[in-house]
Amino acid sequence: MAQVRLERLRKSFGDNVVVDDLDLTIADQEFLTLVGPSGCGKSTTLRMICGLEKLGSGEVYFDSEPVGYLPANKRDVSMVFQSYALYPHKTVEQNIGFALQMMRVPKSEIGERVRKTAASLGIENLLGRKPRELSGGQRQRVALGRAIVRDAGAYLLDEPLSNLDAQLRGDMRVELKRLHADLARTFIYVTHDQVEAMTMSDRIAVMQGGVLQQCAPPEEIYGKPANMFVAQFMGSPPMNFFTGGLTDVEGRRTFRSPAAVLALTEEASRAAEDFPAGEVVLGIRPEDVILGEPGDADAADSLQGTVFVAEPLGADVLVTVDLGGELIKARVPAPFRVGIDKAVPVRLRADRAHLFAKESGASLFSPSQWAPQPTPIAPASDRPTDS
Ligand SMILES: Nc1ncnc2c1ncn2[C@@H]1O[C@H](COP(=O)(O)OP(=O)(O)OP(=O)(O)O)[C@@H](O)[C@H]1O
C-alpha cells in the first residue's frame, strides 16, 4: 500500500455527526497526525480506516482500492491503542509474536522477527517477562512491538503515549519518529497533544466538531493557521487575540482595539485593502510580545501594561500582562525582573501579526516568514526483512 485516501467520509451516532465529509489523502510513508480536542472525531476516523467502525458514508481507499467493505483483519494496517491491551499471562515474546502465530508464520521465523523487533525498540532483555513486571514505558514499547512486528502498509496509532508521564512521553516521541524513518511506512497518528503533533508529523490535520480545519506541515499550521481555532489550538500558550477595527493613521493602516494599537506592515496593509468591512481580530503569539523595562528610552511608543504574574520556565519566562483590561501572554527570555502590579512597556511585533475575520474566524492575513515547502516525507530506508 502506498497511500491512504479518505473520500467524503462521514459518520453519525444517532443525530450526532462525528465525522463530517472528511476528504484527506495520506501519502506513502507520510507521518500524518489527526489532532483536535476531545470528542472531535479523531478516533472514529482512525477506526473507520482500520475497519473497527463501519463507514457512515464515503469511502476509504488504500491506493486505488476501496476497502470500506473489508473487515479489519483483511486490511493491510496494524493498530496501536491507547490502552496497551497486552495479554497478562503471556510473556513479552509471546505478546509480540501473537499476531504472527495467528497468521501461522513458522515458529523459527516468529522467533527471529520478534527478536529483531524487540531489538529495534531496545527491549530484547525483557522478552521473558510478563506485562506486570514491566514499567509503563516498557509496556508501551511492547504494544508498539506487537504492531510493528507485522508487515503492514500503514500503522495506525491512537494516543499511544497518553498513559505515560511527561518525561517518558518525550523519550517515546523521539523513538516513534525514528521508528517511522526506519520502517519507511505510512503512520497515521491520533492525539489531542499539540506538542506530539508538532514534533513528530510530516503533516498535521486539525479537526474540530468532526470537520477538518486545516491539513498542512507543522510550520505552516503554526505560521499560517487557516482560522482562529487552529491558531489557538496549536501553540502553547495560545495566540493572543484582540478584537477591533482598522483605520488609517498618518497614511498607515492601523489596528485599534480598547487594549492595543498597532500600525500594520506594508504587506499586511496591502492585504487589508481586500478585507471585507467589519471588525477584525488581531492575533499575536506570546513570543511576539516584547516587554521592556520600566523607563526604557524607547518605551515612549510602546503600549503600557501591568504585570499580572510571571512564571519562570528556565530559559524563558511566561508573563501574563494586563493590557487595557485584557490579560495577554508574553514569552520573554529569562531573567524578567519587573514585579507583580508594576508597569511594563509592551510592544506587539507588527511583522508577526495575524488578522482574522471576527465573524467567521477565517484567516485574513498571516505574515510571510513561513516559506511554503514540499511536504517532507520520511527518507526511504531499508525495511527490516521479514524472512
Ligand atoms: N459507539 C459510539 N456510540 C455513540 N457515540 C459515540 C461512539 N463512539 C464515539 N462516539 C461519540 O463520537 C464523538 C467522537 O468520538 P471520538 O472518540 O472519535 O473523538 P476523539 O476526537 O477521538 O476524542 P478523544 O480525544 O476524547 O478520544 C464523541 O462525541 C463520542 O462521544
TrEMBL record:
GO terms for cellular component: ATP-binding cassette (ABC) transporter complex, substrate-binding subunit-containing. Residues 365-387 are annotated as: Disordered. The keyword Nucleotide-binding applies. Its EC number is 3.6.3.-. Pfam families: ABC_tran, TOBE_2. GO terms for biological process: carbohydrate transport. Keywords: ATP-binding, Cell membrane, Hydrolase, Membrane, Nucleotide-binding, Translocase, Transport. It is an enzyme of class 3 (hydrolase). GO terms for molecular function: ABC-type transporter activity; ATP binding; ATP hydrolysis activity. Residues 4-234 form the ABC transporter domain. PANTHER family: MALTODEXTRIN IMPORT ATP-BINDING PROTEIN MSMX (PTHR43875), TREHALOSE IMPORT ATP-BINDING PROTEIN SUGC (PTHR43875:SF15). This is Carbohydrate ABC transporter ATP-binding protein, CUT1 family. It comes from Actinoalloteichus hymeniacidonis. The lineage of its organism: Bacteria, Bacillati, Actinomycetota, Actinomycetes, Pseudonocardiales.
